[in-house]
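Please describe the entry underneath.
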Amino acid sequence: MREIRYLGDPVLRTAAEPVTEFDRDLRRLIDEMFATMYLANGVGLAGPQIGVPKRLFVYEITNRKGHVVNPELTIDDPDEVVEEEGCLSVPGRETGKPLYAPTPRAAGVTVRGFDQLGRPLAITARGMLARCFQHEFDHLEGRLYVDRLPRDTARQIMLQTP
């Protein structure tokens, strides 16, 4: 398991670099990311969240499990959907659990990238999977879900973090 980085850590505000080596180390990193995500009861985890400024993320929502290396995100359905969203990197000071807030996201997206062996992949998603892809992609760009919230709501959340 890797240590999850929290709001305030500069790695979370820095755009991640592309993965250039599709080797055993990458496969081990992806396995460690899944283990970290599961132990933290998350549904997605991006490289920067564990201090690895590389463009990759893992996810598991319902029956959809996978990873994407060097993802590109395309908005297929720009209709805004506002639902509760939280982040393992934005825990409450008292509970240690993610703090949630209604967060706007696009209704449908396609993510294109590569698997751990360097094979191309493309996944079209709606609902929670689309939300997850957008959330994790934001991490790779140095953004957090609180950046999408009204200023007052974001401020309230940040006051509750460690």
